[in-house]
Amino acid sequence: MPSYEFTCPVCGGFDRWHRMTEVPDSAPCPVCRRQARRRVCGGGLLRSGSAATRLLDATARTASEPPTVSAPPPRRGARVTRNPLHRKLPRY
Ligand SMILES: [Zn+2]
Fold first, then answer.
1. What residue spans carry the region label Disordered (predicted)?
2. CA 32 to ligand 1 center in whole angstroms
3. For the chain, which terminal residue's Cβ has fewer other Cβ atoms within 10 angstroms, N or C?
């Protein structure tokens, strides 16, 4: 479902998600509830900076730059601490 941009005459722009077949020409402003007109733009399905866009960017980045680790993950149930004093603690 793509997002569409609306412009409130008082508060400015905001985005709303609509089905492509149900896009209204105006929508109530989430702040002042006045009718805001839909902005005509050739935008994509995702706006930059959105959570979906950040996720797609991070996913694409790991394909070419996989994260590197310096050690294997700790054993299941192993204590994760580097403090040497913790070695003296009783183990159960
Ligand atoms: Zn408004």
1. 59-92
2. 4
3. C
The alpha carbon of 76 and the centre of ligand 1 are apart by a number of angstroms equal to 53
User: Is 79 part of a structural domain of the chain?
Assistant: no
Average pLDDT over residues 5-15: 91
Tell how far the Cα of 14 is from the centroid of ligand 1, in angstroms. 9
Q: What is the 13 CA–ligand 1 centroid distance (Å)?
A: 8
User: What is the rounded distance in angstroms from the CA atom of residue 33 to the CA atom of residue 4?
Assistant: 17
Position 37 in a domain: yes
In a domain, 92, yes or no: no
Task: Identify the domain containing residue 58 by its residue range.
Answer: 3-62
pLDDT 10s digits, 39-54:
876 555 666 678 888 8
Please give the DSSP secondary-structure letter assigned to residue 2: -
Centre of ligand 1 to C-alpha 89, Å, is 61
